Amino acid sequence: MRGKKCVDEVLEILEDFREVPNKIQELVDQFDSISQLAHNLRAVKSVLFLGRNVGYPVALEGALKLKELAYIHAEGVLLRVNLNMSQLRWLIRTCLFLSFCRHFLDLSCTRRSLTIFRRLRHEGAQVFTIADAHDAQAHAHATFIVDRPVVSSLLTPLLDVIPLQIFAYALATSKGLDVGQAS
Fold first, then answer.
1. Residue ranges of the domains in the chain?
2. What number of other Cβ atoms are within 10 A of residue 94's Cβ?
3. What is the pLDDT of residues 128-179, one digit of tens each?
């Protein structure tokens, strides 16, 4: 609208926006598998949410929801592509990783992010990823994956928060917490 994108791109984003309710339903349909993951991880003490670009606010929201409902330590962190091995080892010792793999505009940034995922898995981290259904590289490096319906990158936060809210709800209920009384 401010001349940063051409009219065709804006119209494509608006068309994607009209489809968001249907795409949210596709994510809600994955409730059982996300709940099973949460049940399997009910003993986890700390969760680190990593996000880049539009995924960073999603990481913050995921951490907040987990703190509110499950009463465990959770942090949302901006994924830096230049983490060194000692930083990775410290992170892996203290946290379960919930990461967001997405198609970046910068291909070299994508390669570096995938390198981090590979290193995390090699060091023993569990990588829970929300990615486009056709993203084979994300599927190859994730411990557990939620397939996000394909949508414009600007709209992915609207979809990405859904599985994180389901995860927080399911983790809290699997721990026997009353989510209706969460503060």
1. 7-175
2. 13
3. 888 887 877 777 778 888 999 988 888 989 999 999 999 999 999 999 999 8
Alpha helices in the chain (DSSP H): 7-18, 20-28, 31-40, 55-70, 85-94, 107-122, 136-141, 156-174
3-state secondary structure of 132: strand
d(CA 151, CA 64): 25
Angle, in degrees to the nearest 10, between helices 20-28 and 156-174: 30
Is the sign of the CA dihedral 66, 51, 153, 3 positive or negative?
A: positive
The total number of residues shown for the chain amounts to 183
How confident is the model over 25-40, as pLDDT tens digits?
Answer: 999 999 999 999 999 9
Partners of 46 in the β-ladder: 73
Q: Which CATH superfamily is domain 7-175 in?
A: Glucose-6-phosphate isomerase like protein; domain 1 (3.40.50.10490)
Query: pLDDT at position 4, please?
Result: 74
Does the CA dihedral 4-59-120-150 come out positive or negative? negative
Answer for the pair 121, 141: CB distance below 8 angstroms, yes or no: yes
